[in-house]
Structure formats: structure tokens, C-alpha cells
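User: Predict the full complex structure for these chains.
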Amino acid sequence: MPIQVLMPALSPTMEKGNLSKWLKKEGETIKSGDVIAEIETDKATMEVEATDEGTLGKILIPEGTADVAVNTPIATILVDGESAADLGKTAAPAKQEKAAESVPPAAEAKSAPAPRDQSAAAPAAPKAATEPDPEVPEGTEMVTMTVREALRDAMAEEMRRDPDVFVMGEEVAEYQGAYKVTQGLLQEFGARRVIDTPITEHGFAGIGVGAAMAGLKPIVEFMTFNFAMQAMDQIINSAAKTLYMSGGQMGCSIVFRGPNGAAARVAAQHSQDYSAWYSQIPGLKVVAPFSAADYKGLLKAAIRDPNPVIFLENEMLYGHSGEVPKLDDYVIPIGKARIARTGGQVTIVSWSNGMSYALKAADELAKEGIEAEVIDLRTLRPMDTDTIVASVKKTGRAVTVEEGWQQNGVGAEVAARIMEHAFDYLDAPVARVSGKDVPMPYAANLEKLALPSVAEVVAAAKAVCYR
Amino acid sequence: MAAPKKSVAKETGQDEGNGSHHPLEFTKDQELSALRDMLLIRRFEEKAGQLYGMGAIGGFCHLYIGQEAIVVGMQMALKKGDQVITGYRDHGHMLACGMDARGVMAELTGRHGGYSKGKGGSMHMFSKEKNFFGGHGIVGAQVSLGTGLAFANRYRGNDFVSLAYFGDGASNQGQVYESFNMAELWKLPVIFIIENNRYAMGTSVTRSSAQTDFSKRGASFNIPGEQVDGMDVRAVKAAGDRAVAWCREGSGPFILEMQTYRYRGHSMSDPAKYRTREEVDKVRHGQDPIEQVRNRLLAAKMSEQDLKAIDAEVREIVNAAADFAQHDPEPDAAELWTDVYR
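Assistant: Here is the predicted structure of the two-chain assembly.
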């Protein structure tokens, strides 16, 4: 059967083009790969190559024709044993039928819905259920430990439990951790599982993701998240998106962890909060705890999670001590906020080191007769909207506290969710306390001004209470 | 300001590249198998080009026509359990790994039966079963990931090898060298296969690269490399055998520069005005990897008829794949929300 050559599309947006020139004549022999014609669009001139072998039977669109629609038959090719006599009885070729099918006439569109129809009625996002915190049985011994020790214990316990878990990063092994978080791990687990990397964030993040695709469970430590900007492509394009792009076949269980947010007197390049950056990305989970117990329970959960988890620590909190339940397996589910202090007059929402300001402000407010409810988000993605909304429905007022910048910040997201889910309960607009909209300055006085303060949180809470 | 040129070639214990290795002869079965596998890729890509022209395939579509000998020859050097990862010009790699032509084509058309349920497209397909780790759209990203696959093999203490394919363009990305460093430092069993098709999109190697001998790109990390005639499937297989042996015995990574050529533009919308038709024709008529095998088989008294039968069989597979890819339903709307987390 003679083969029809169709007007090709040169790009996803091309609808028509000019047939500028025929390079083969009717009756000429054509081999696969031969250029048979030239077509041009507003952007480029392109050569049309034959993909079948045979003889050019008939030119259907003469050269010089403008605005030839994509998929219009432009010529026929006669294959083995066919002659010009066969041209008349050209059955519509398979590809022609299919072209017609891919653009169904409106009247028949019902049987095969086009993508546009679907997007018009995009299905609602499924709602994720979160589990409650594990019960800490009455009488459980509580151990006081620093956040640093809690992190180390969490990693050590998970490495004992699962031989596929390993730690890699700069100075994690012999130096015992730039911030001493991995202290003792090399001695217990050896160099095979506690791996010092060169200073090469992009490369070792990619190696970690590749190892995770192969089924290992890496804990990749960034000396600080400031340096993870070098690895951003691997974190987002490779780690976060592969499960989706593979139709669920291939994901990666990996934890990227390290200190995030403002440190002390290190200036703009080493003092930045990435909470908002990572928590925008579907496919990532983002955890940013405050208390030592949460650091331990959530890091264990992050290591076990089959998805990529960004675990944002805070350098200023490493030395803070807290009570951690002495349980064999203290795992806190990702995605659940914690009510750190109950109160009925104003809700203060924060996470990580922002909680330091929030809790101190709540103490101050109590002295002035305002009982604040303080919510520690702990996880930024998925965000526990229910806990925030339930609190705001009770208090009617909300303040968010973060060290990061305000524009497109996590506080902005919290405020939007409150508006969406509890607008009618609000007695005042949501207030945001945040880092100032400047790169972090070095000078001690300016640095202090750039960060949120307890006084600012108190003032914001009083403002939304009209006090 | 040019520094004096010095040879930085690594002593490999083998003769240095320049395609000087005498290609091993293939048995008739090997020739036939290579011919069939290369033809499958060629016909598949031609069909994909057609479907793109008809609007059935959207977005970016990068064809592998001309480069078939590389993946087919390398695959002949592997054993089950070895892993493959590549960039966005990936259809050939998938077919060479044994992935089903229907599933690949249906992914190109964005259908439910595609390898990624239609959610990945041309540049993002994977098969756990066939140890194919993608299909990656960011130039160079697969090099670190492939090094990570090798890391996992070393961690587990098995003797599998990972193949990280990338182009002459990706060879200028920073993370490639970060990966080279760690791969050699930790003696990871990874073969870095540089498919040098002379053009990074529209920029020729000489306009983009200070060192155009890509087999030497590992020199400052002490990674041995070879230049290989990537148009001769036998030369590819022979080089693959050497590199695989090097990796399996724990000697660390190896670089193979495959000298090849893509007949088509970078992507479907590339009119390829940066090179002459004569240049394309010269490779196509003088070095075509499929013609080379075909001519050897004809010289060995195989009949034209028998070769046509192979072509017919391949065309049937490709036509069936195209048919499936156009009739399979689009993914269900509910798939929008699946596979974000597991």
C-alpha cells in the first residue's frame, strides 16, 4: 500500500508551515534518511527526511505552498512492487487514521476525553491521615540530653536496626562531625557506614540519591544547609521527583540533614533559613523540630520514611537539653504538630528555633493576662493544618513566628491556610513575625535587629488581641 | 595565555585510545543479535519521529538514530544485575536493556500503559526489573546518580557494575568531575560512557571543550580512559569487555569515549543548521553502524532475503508498539495525585 508522507510538526506548538522546496522528483528512488523536502516556519527551516524506502509516487502539495497544516498528506511513497497505478487506490494509511484519532472532532470527543477536559475537573487532592504521637507509658524514665545527643542516638539506633542505613558528609567520620553530631558513630559502625566525603555537595548529594535509588537508606549530612544550595538540583529534580516521574516504580528513601537557619555572627552566606524553599516541593517531606525529644523521634521516623526527607536542624539548639523518653523505639510520626503550651486567647505558630521566641513570649503574655496557645509545627510538609485550625477556632487570633524571610514564607502559608479554613472564626488579621527582609548582617547589633525578638512576638500577639 | 600542552593521558597498562584496538570478530549469532537490536532502535526512533510529527508525542523528543552501536555493544558486555542510567536521549538505552517497546512508546504518547504511567514522558522512564535507572532530564545529573548506583554495589559487596552514559555536552558539567573524584577515591565500579556525538545541542565539541579528547577527562583523577569507534558495535563490545572487567575486579571506575554521530537534530525542533548535509551524509553512508553489520553478513553469504526478514520482524514490533501507544487510554485523572509519596 503506498505510504503517505504527512506535513510534520517541528515543535509542540507548530500548527502549519510552508512547503518551500521539493528535493526529490516524482519517480525518484528514496532511501530512508534521504532529505525529500524543506519546510519552514516562522522560526526555522527544516529538512524532511524519508523514513521509508521506495519511490516518490506523487507530490500532493507543490513547493511554494504556504500555510500547510500539520498532518496534511504532502506526498506518497510507493514501496516494493507498487507502481503509479496503485496511487489511485491509496487506502488511508495507518498513521493518517491515527492522526485523525488524536484530534477527535468535537462531536465525538465524549468517547475519548482530551487532557484539557480532565484539567477542567481536576480531582481533589487526597487528604493524608496523620497518626498520633506514640504513647509514652506512665512511669517511663525520662533522660535529659542535648539535641546533639538526641540526633546521634537516633542515627545510631537506626543504624543498628537496619544495615542499609549509612551516614555520609563532610567531616562526619574522623573529625566526629563539624558540629559533633555524629560523635562516636565511626567508632561503632566503621568507615564503611560512616563516610567522610570531599567538599563536593552537588556530587555527594547525587551519589546519595543514586545509592537510595538502588535501595540503600543514606543519611546525607550537609555541614550546613547553606551549602546544600550547591546540591539543590539533585535534591529537587532527582530525589523529590523520581517517584512520580517513574509512575511509582523508583523512589528514594534518603534523609538530608544538617543545621539550617541563623547561626551567630557568620553573616549572610552562612545564616539563612531554607524552610520555605524545601517545603514548597511536592515529593519532599520537611521536618524542623525544636525539642530534644522531637529531634530524636522525628529523625528516627525520617530515616525509616520511604521518601526523601529534609531534616532541618538548628545550630543554636544543638546544645539545648530536654527530656527524652527512654524507650526502645521512640518514633514520632512525621506530619503532626505538637501543642507546646495550651491557652485560649491567641494561637502562636512556630517551629525550630522560632519556638524559642514563641515560648518566651507566651510567658511574657501570661504575665499580662493573655493566655497564648503555642503550636510547634515540627513538620512543615506535610503541614498539620488541622491542629492549627482547631486552635484558631478556639482563640480567634493567630501569630506566626519564623526566622526566615516573610515573602512567600512558611508563616505566609500558615496565614493562608487559616484564612481558607477558619476565616469566620478570626477576630483579627493573622500577624507574622519574621526575619527582616535583608541579608543577614555581621555586626552584632544589626544581626539582633534582623532576627525576630520576643518583644516583637509579644507586640504582635497583643495587637491581634487589640490590647 | 595558552599553557603548553602536555599529555595528561593516564598510564592504563593498555594501549592508548584513538580507536586503535582491533575490534574482536563477532560470531554470526552475535552479528545477527546486534543487527536486530540496532534495527529495533532505529525503526523505533523513526516511528517516534513520525508520531511526533503527527502530534501524538509532545514536548521534547531526542532521537538516538546513528548512535545505536553504543548501547547495543555495551549491553553485550554486561551481565544480569548490572545497572544502566543515562540522560534524556534515552529510548535506545531502554530498548537495549530489554524494556518493552510498547511501554516505551506509550510513555512517549503519555498513556497509561507507558513505563511511568504517562507521567514521565520521553526523558523520564525507569524499569526496576531491567535495572534501568532512567532517563534523566538535567544534563549531567545521571553521572552522580550512576556513581551512587556503583556506591551501592560496593557497599553491598557484590560485583555488579553500573554504566553511566552522558554526552560530550554533559562532560563539561561540574558534578561530573565531583563524581569522577569520589568514584576513583572509593574505587567505585562505574563505567563513565561519554557518547561524543560531536554536538552539544548546536555547539560543536571544538567550540565548547578545552580538552576534546574525552577519554582524558579523568586524567587528573587517575581514571583510565579509552577512545572507541562508537560506530562499530564490535569495537564497542570489546572496549566494554575491558572496562567491565576492570570494574568487576575492583580497580575502580573507567571512562569510555564513544565516538559517534547523531543523524537527526538535537531534538525534533532542531533544524541542525550548525552542520552541513555533507557531514551528515558522510557518516551515514560511510560509517553507519547498522550498514556495517549488514554488509558483513552479506559478505558472509547471508541472503538479502534473510536480512529483510529481520527487518520485517522489527517493523512488526515497532508498528505494534505505535499502535498500542496511540490506542492505550490516557492515565486516569486520579493518577494526578498518585506516586508523589509512598
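Strands of chain B lie at 83-86, 132-135, 162-167, 190-196, 199-200, 203-204, 225-229, 254-259.
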